[in-house]
Amino acid sequence: MDYDVKDTGLAKEGKNKIEWAEKDMSVLRGIKKDFAARKPLKGVNIGACLHVTSETANLMITLKEGGANVALTASNPLSTQDDVAASLVIDHGISVFAIKGEDNDTYYSHIDSILDMGPRITMDDGADVISRIHSKRKDLLENVYGGTEETTTGVIRLKSMEQNKVLQYPIIAVNDAKTKHFFDNRYGTGQSTMDGIMRATNILLSGKRFVVVGYGWCGRGVAMRASGMGASVIVLEVDPLKAIEAKLDGFDVMKNTQAAKVGDIFLSVTGNKNVIGPDILANCRDMSIVANSGHFDAEIDLEYLKKNSKSKREVRPFVEEYMMNDGRRIYVLAQGRLVNLGAAEGHPASVMDMSFANQSLSAEYIYQNSSKLEKKVYIVPEDIDQEIARLKLKSMGVEIDKLTPEQEEYLRSWEMGT
Length: 418
Hints:
By secondary structure, the chain is α/β, with parallel strands linked by helices. It contains 17 helices and 15 strands. The strands form two sheets. The protein has an eight-stranded mixed beta sheet. Strands 3-2-1-4-5-6-15 form a seven-stranded parallel beta sheet, sandwiched between helices.
């Protein structure tokens, strides 16, 4: 078994974290038990590029229990929990290539390390593995059954590949499952983003003007949590429908230049480039805080900050102060990377339970149906989505009603009318 982690001596701490997360992952726990009995992925090489956290560790263990040969690398240089990586190697015999804070060259060498195993199924959070295979490791393409994608940013990239007819194997967009984006993106990102900002800065949110750039599911979640903590929320949007929704949800909606003059904290969650750019950075007030919860660090125009600042220094862990040429101070959290994973621990395990249940069952679906799937992006099959929701409700002790035969007939009929 090959691996590259910071320190295998951290394994005991990581083991405790993995076990703590597992207690809140009841759906995945049930899948692991089923996988252990059936071995539906026996002998299948799975190369995963995901955030190396205690929750992800439980996904990797589940896949291994299902018979897969698993190798894991980080999908973000700051998202790795080094003790969890160590435990996966020492306690579970899983190849891990991830070190928190690794440089760009190491990041891609680690991706190449999982590709060297010859994956038949890929798992992505941001589509870096898929991109690498399609650009630098094309020799692997003919042996890949398919892949999964965990996040909005990655799905955007992959749909673009499909539209441009360059996608060479089928992808299941796990992010688009209802049991993923309705809950993971809204409640998970909402809570963990606030956690990251609070840990990095220790500021009081109450009374602050909190600018959320993007009102998708992640933006909705962040706005809801910021408002609940007493902040006055301002939403920036380019989509008129989402802008109306934000307004009717009770938030102020402005242009970026307007918000720049009044905001205290600026948070991007769009999946797009430089959405916190010169319009905001040239006009924001002294001591403004800037952070990102979109997948890549491209959302904040860091080049603008570098070119228009006198100096940069770290004033707290994960807080960098840019002293601008005009004397203003702008504070960037977690190097502009995912603040919820860079400065905190990411989503709660109970939310990731559904996301990673989707990953597990989608991997099995790909393996069983690879000969039928085209080179395109698919949503998670509805029956998988529904079953995960049913299992999650059961684990929460919640029972719901069923339609009666009469009600089912009424919904099917066009003749009964009013």
